[in-house]
């Protein structure tokens, strides 16, 4: 019992505390109000002097958080911050005096700033459906005012400009109402008088005409395309037939080539063998030609050239030696003749000195005459021997090089030959030469040419004479 008396007060205290906490929690729950994201709490009553109250306001605005509301002392109401929509259908008159009906829609809401919420709370708290009519009236007046300064064409072309001007003109009034315009759209423009329709008629006619022209053009192009397609089909069929024919011809040619492949391959192989053998024969012939050129022809040419050079040198040496012998013989004969003549004179003088005048003189004359005869005979004999030696040398030279001897004789007698060719001009009293120096040169050249034309005949005659002289036998004692 004593334990129970001790525990019972403790239990009662705990229960009382729990009950107090529960009561406080229920009271706080009933007094604590939380604002939704799309609404604002308007708390009126005992609010002046609190932190949440706005300067100049006798109520408190709570958005996005909670607030403690004391029942009996404070009242809390909600103001929706969601979007609202108002349909517009306003009859207006343009600057042209034309009546039009403008249809649009205004999307608006209460502004998020405390001033906008306060204005809207003062005007629409508990009466939010009235906002639609207020907004309609505001936009109706401004829409009529702005359309009255515009033409129908401007309204049609510049709807965005119209909406912007209406929003700008109604902005101050909407702010006083605590509202913000999110969007203003001009949906339609009705024309009871038919002005817009009449404006569109020329354009419609133009469009219809262009449509008909375009349709005709498309029909024409379609017909052309169809014709082109048909032509292309025909071309394709023709090409296909040609290709088939070509393919068939190629197939036939391939079969024929296949049939001829064996014999053709054999013939080609034989032809290649013949070609190779021909090339080998050509190479062997070239090799033999090179070998002949190297081993036989070039040495033979070199030997023939050496022999020819040696013969020409020997011939020149023989001619020179013969001429030298002839000249030496002639000089010796002249020297012998002078020596004999001198000896004869000396003998004659000595005989004259020892003999008597008459006898001695006769004898001396006789001796001198004899001596002169002997000297003359010796000179004639020496000259004859020299001429014989010269003839013999010329004969030997003729045998070795007849042309050289004849050429030397022609050169020695060339002045006489040219004089004989020019002899007809000696009987000409007056000679007229045309073209000046060129004429003289031509004339002289003709003379030399005429003289030159005699040279072959003279050369032939000399050859014949030399041969004839060679064939005649020598006379005894010559």
TrEMBL record:
Domain Band: start-end pairs: 30-203
Any one Pfam family match given in the protein's UniProt record, by short name: Band_7
Predominant localisation class: membrane
A GO molecular-function descriptor: protease binding
Location of this chain's protein in the cell: Membrane
Keyword Manganese tagged: no
Transmembrane residue ranges: 6-28
Presence of the UniProt keyword Coiled coil in the record: yes
InterPro entries according to UniProt: Band_7 (IPR001107), Band_7/SPFH_dom_sf (IPR036013), Flotillin_C (IPR031905), Flotillin_fam (IPR027705)
GO BP terms in the entry: protein localization to plasma membrane
Keywords of the record: Coiled coil, Membrane, Transmembrane, Transmembrane helix
Family recorded in the similarity comment: Belongs to the band 7/mec-2 family. Flotillin subfamily.
Record-given protein name: Band 7 domain-containing protein
